[in-house]
Each structure stands twice: as C-alpha cells, then as structure tokens.
Design goal:
By secondary structure, the protein is an alpha/beta fold. Helices cover 33% and strands 24% of the residues. A five-stranded mixed beta barrel has the order 8-11-9-10-12. A two-stranded antiparallel sheet has the order 2-3. Strands 7-13 form a two-stranded antiparallel ribbon.
Length: 296
C-alpha cells in the first residue's frame, strides 16, 4: 500500500449560477482575483504539493478552462513579436505542455453532484490515494494541499479532509466533523454531519475544499445512491468508508476565502490588494485600507 498522492482531481463542471451573468460566457473558475484566475491558484497549489497528474472534471460548455490551462504557442509568439517577452515567459511557466505534463480533461455531462464529479475521474486517476481540490475555496499561505500531503498517513486514517474552526452559529453552512481527539493539526473523527443546526453540531471543525481520499472512495461512490436533487454526495461516500479506512481532519495554516460567493470573492480581492503597492494606493485613496485592517 502506498500513501503517495499522485493525482489531484479538480471538479470544475459547475455552472457558477451565483455569479451570473458574469459566468454566462466565462467559467467561474476563470474569474480573476485581481489578475490571477481562481483555478490558477489551485493548480499552483497542486504543483507545489508534488502531484504528478492533474485531472480536470469539466463540462463541454466550459472549453475556456482547457484553453487557459494548456500552453498557447501562438499567443506567446504574438506577445514576443510585440516586445512582451517577459509576459510570454510568465504564461508559458504557468501553463501545461501537452507533451511534457500529465494533464487529463474528462467531462461531467450532467450536474449530478460533487461525488459524481470525483467518480468521473476514476479512469484517469493514478493508483493510490487521490487529492480533490475545489478551486472555489481559495486558501492563501503555505499551501494547504502540500501540508496535507506531508501529514497524510501519519495519523492512521486514509481519508483526510481540510478543516477550520468556525463559530458555533456558522456550523449550519458546512460539513462538520464528529471529532474524537486531536494531535497537533490532525483531528481524529468518527463521522461527519452535513450542515447541522448549531445546537446539534458535534464540533466546530468545518470541512473545506481540500481532500485526500483513499482510492476505495471510487468503489464507495459507484455504490452510492443519489440523494437530494438526484446528486451523489461525496460526504456520504466518505462516511461509508470510515470504518474501513478511518477519517481525520487537518487544520491548515493558511487563510481560506469562499470565492464561490460574491462576498468571499470580494474579501479575497481586498486581502490581496492590500498586499500590492499599486492596489494599496487605490485603497488608501478610497479610505478603505484602515477599514479593512479593522475588519480583519
């Protein structure tokens, strides 16, 4: 048995309805946080974690994601011809080469849930545990997935989920771990409860969009009955495997922004703007910098 995480799955087939009409023609994963698309942060995080193969579970209507992810030699040539060599080099460094990089695109034709999206990647995944990265959850800092890869297997559990501690009244917005103990950043758990009422929440450890899952997750998903809305839920399949492979949470060190919501995206933009000299000057002009610092 290997604990090496060789595959990262990116479920990017969603329609992004919360950002319509902006996402009518532009996938939500390509919405920029200042000048960098959300998906690029997720890709960089997976690359830094040492993942070999990146599997994008997309939708036929979202071909722009593949255009962004893969290298565009013609665009680079045009930029160099216009004297923008550095920009061309930056784009090449961020993009994947079809010949040298292990990147797979597979389609989720119908919106049948996150669990179904992960199952769509089954044939493309390399042997061993797989990472699942939700680009909507922007986590800035050291690199959440890299931290999880380093810790994976040390606590005995082969299903690991990223967690953060939330206020009691916020528990109804997340999947919440049923925690049984802690060892540093590792949280032992015997279950997960999806969006419990605050008075019923078994802990305040909320699951966010990074997972490392034992490869048995695919068998559990294949046997999973559709739930509400006809969707196959990833959390149900994780729960199904707890007795066999265990479950733990991992408290990451970075700062998470829910960029699947407008307010979360705005918070992320303001956070990064405050760290950029040019943007910072604009914030100061608008009297926003002090207010943002107070809010933080």
């Amino acid at each position: 048995m290997t604990h090496r995480v060789r595959t990262a799955i990116f479920p990017v087939a969603g329609l992004g309805t919360r950002f319509l009409p902006a996402t009518k023609a532009t996938p939500k994963e390509l919405l920029p946080v200042i000048d960098t698309p959300l998906i690029q942060y997720a890709i960089d995080e997976a690359r830094d974690a040492g993942v070999e193969r990146l599997v994008f579970v997309s939708h036929p209507s979202k071909s722009a994601i593949e255009r962004h992810v893969m290298d565009d030699a013609k665009l680079r040539a045009d930029l160099r011809a216009r004297g923008k060599a550095q920009l061309a080099d930056d784009l090449q460094a961020a993009a994947f080469c079809p010949e040298n990089d292990d990147v797979v695109f597979t389609m989720q034709e119908e919106p049948l849930g996150l669990g179904h999206a992960v199952l769509c990647a089954r044939e493309a995944a390399l042997p061993g545990p797989v990472a699942v990265v939700l680009p909507d959850d922007l986590i800035l800092g050291r690199g959440c997935l890299g931290e999880m890869v380093e810790a994976y297997g040390t606590g005995g559990a082969r299903h690991m989920v990223a967690t953060m501690t939330v206020a009691q009244e916020e528990t109804s917005k997340y999947g919440i771990l049923s925690a049984t103990g802690a060892n540093g950043p590792l949280i032992q758990a015997d279950g997960m409860v999806e969006k419990p009422a605050p008075q019923d929440a078994p802990s305040r450890e909320a699951v966010v969009g990074r997972y490392i899952l034992d490869e048995s997750i695919f068998d559990d998903l294949a046997r999973q009955d559709p739930g509400a809305g006809g969707e196959i839920q990833l959390t149900d399949a994780i729960s199904r495997g707890i007795e066999r492979v265990g479950l733990c949470g991992f408290r990451f060190s970075g700062q998470r922004f829910d960029c699947g919501s407008k307010t979360g995206m705005l918070r992320a933009i303001l956070h990064l703007a405050a760290e950029d000299a040019e943007c910072c000057a604009v914030l100061e002009e608008q009297g926003m910098l002090t207010a943002q610092a107070d809010a933080a």
